[in-house]
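Hey,

Quick one before I head out. I ran the complex with flavin mononucleotide overnight. Inputs first:
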Amino acid sequence: MLTYLTAGESHGPELSGILTGIPAGLHLDIDEINTALSARQGGYGRGNRQKIEHDQVIITGGVRHGVTLGSPIALTVKNRDHAQWSEIMNPTSPATPENTLRKVSRPRPGHADLVGGMKYGHRDMRNVLERSSARETAMRVAVGNICKQVLEALNIKIIGYVEAIGGVNADSSQPTQVDTIVNLIEQNDLRVTDQSQIEPIHEMIDDAKRNGDTLGGVIRVVAENVPAGLGSYVSWDTKLDAKLAAAVMGVNAMKGVEIGDGFENAVHPGSQVMDEIDWQEGQGFSRNSDHLGGFEGGMTNGMPVIVKAAMKPIPTLYKPLQSADINSKEVKKATVERSDTTAIVPASIVIESVVSIELAKAITDTFDGSNIDRLKKQIADYRQELQNF
Ligand SMILES: Cc1cc2nc3c(=O)[nH]c(=O)nc-3n(C[C@H](O)[C@H](O)[C@H](O)COP(=O)(O)O)c2cc1C
């Protein structure tokens, strides 16, 4: 079973991950994982933390001479910033007045601080902040990129990018070809397809920063050449669109998920929404449009899988909102922790990663995922079978 777990605090020594269920025999491209990690650190509107970190993955299990063994893959990403926090975030040395400085007692509205403190009984909400921080998503990107490499071996392409920032749409063309999207988004530091929107968005982000404010946005993921029939209609918990929605909502700050034209579909009659079925000699069945984002009955239908995510603005504001001190109970401004103005660009890589994980999981749930060459053969045979259906 393909599954993963991450551990590690934002300013702790490192992030750790264990990923199981990756087929044996996959030639892992470590540079590709590191490229994804560095893409997660980039993008206009990020804070200074990214100048400190140079994320690189270290693999300590499950891979030999660059080839996966089928055993659990153990991963590490070091936190360079830990050097500044080595006393305060020391995992084992007993607490003293000196190493418990930088306590957090004024919770940030919109962050996990207050409720996390209440639930776990932390009087220093740094204990919450350190793990609820999106620093953890660096490990999800490393794990997700390994899954993306499984997809690539099966000729499935995937990309996550930015559709809109702070209410400005920069994706008027809504492409469904991954190569076209990659070509367009690589031309700018916002990961958007519409170059004409770059300057106004830069200005909007600069303005937000000057005002101590933050911005959210919309992310779009497209996966191409996904075979029909992943997931199942038979039970609620076998539906792959539902699993994708849960994985996307599991990413920090995501507050909405849409499959295909989800919300837009709700306002049109069925005749304008359903994707008409076509059949062609040598190609088999396809659809004339993709309003349903490649899903019918909780199963992929062979059209591009399209998933969108709505990200709320970053909760940490340099011009902080009202909070109340959990010790004195005085109403005061919230704590300020070093922060991004917008993290929509890195978040698009995180969303691409979690969608890659769910697709790789659906494939290895459906076919024998012990060995990559056997898996490739099964998928090729299955594609052939579908073509002749
Ligand atoms: C890539 C990424 C970077 C983020 N950076 C920050 C940040 O710098 N400051 C901040 O307050 N929140 C940041 N967030 C959002 C918080 O992690 C998130 O809002 C918080 O954990 C509370 O969870 P919730 O928004 O899902 O309720 C980031 C999220 C992502 C996906």
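Residues 344-366 form the longest helix (23 residues).

Talk tomorrow,
K.
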